[in-house]
Amino acid sequence: MMLTTKALTKNFGGVIALNNVDITIEKGKIISLIGPNGAGKTTFFNCITGMYPPTSGKVYFNASSEKNKDIDRLKPMEIARLGIARTFQNIRLFANMTCFENVLVGKICRSKAGLFSTFFTDFSKEKEISEEVYDLLEFVGLADVANEISQNLPYGKQRRLEIARALAIKPQLLLLDEPVAGMNSQEIIEVMDLIKKIQGKGITVFFIEHDMKMVMNISDKVIVLNYGIKIAEGPPEDIQKNEKVITAYLGEER
């Protein structure tokens, strides 16, 4: 398994946001995390990526490797360097930087040397890194706006730019928090195609989403949270028929 959580729990004061959540993420798959608003989905991502320390429980990444086994107490940058990248529910681009510069920052984050020493003083690496940044922009369909200021891009392109920056870290596991929120139908199709392309590069994709058509069309497995508890896990066709899931979304009376 690429990533596993065991009894992962997160409390905020008297509020239990996650309650003994066990999940497994299989290598090379597209897996979605769904649930009603307030179910604990983003909190779960935050615990995996070091934004929040779990109250209790464990997170294992590449558990077959001793080096990468236990990550639940690591800092976000340490987790990123191990090969887990993410995007956020609210876009977090560097608004006044160009598209190229935004992806460059992601690229340099993978290096322990830092932005200045890696890019600006090691001229032997400058051309190689620049080419890799442009390749990523082309991969997500933004090569033609490489020199545009990111805040001037349409919303859908900003989302794709954030994905490109996450890919610059060279992740084994990519976490996407509501990647098609606020998008029109054509933009959603484009992101679905992009996620499949990412999977085609051997990267495992784990995403949170409310668009059920997207979830059911591209997920190999769906995990469902409700009030911080995992209530279901399985292939999309089983989740669609699961009574606990239907009740969580629609209530007891249907």
Structure report:
By secondary structure, the protein is α/β, with parallel strands linked by helices. It is 39% helix and 22% strand. The strands form 2 sheets. A 6-stranded mixed β-sheet has the order 5-6-7-3-8-9, sandwiched between helices. It has 10 helices and 9 strands. The radius of gyration is 19 Å and the shape is globular. The model has no long low-confidence stretch (mean pLDDT 90). It starts with a strand and ends with a helix. α3 (99-109) packs across α5 (123-139).
Question: How would you briefly describe this protein structure?
Answer:
This protein has helices at residues 41-48, 76-82, 99-109, 115-120, 123-139, 155-167, 185-200, 212-218, 236-241, 243-250; strands at residues 3-12, 15-25, 30-34, 56-61, 84-86, 173-177, 204-208, 221-226, 229-234. With 254 residues, it is an alpha/beta fold.
What is this structure's SSE topology?
Elements: E1 3-12, E2 15-25, E3 30-34, H1 41-48, E4 56-61, H2 76-82, E5 84-86, H3 99-109, H4 115-120, H5 123-139, H6 155-167, E6 173-177, H7 185-200, E7 204-208, H8 212-218, E8 221-226, E9 229-234, H9 236-241, H10 243-250
Parallel strand pairs: 3-7, 3-8, 5-6, 6-7
Antiparallel strand pairs: 1-2, 1-4, 8-9
Helix pairs in contact: 3-5, 3-6
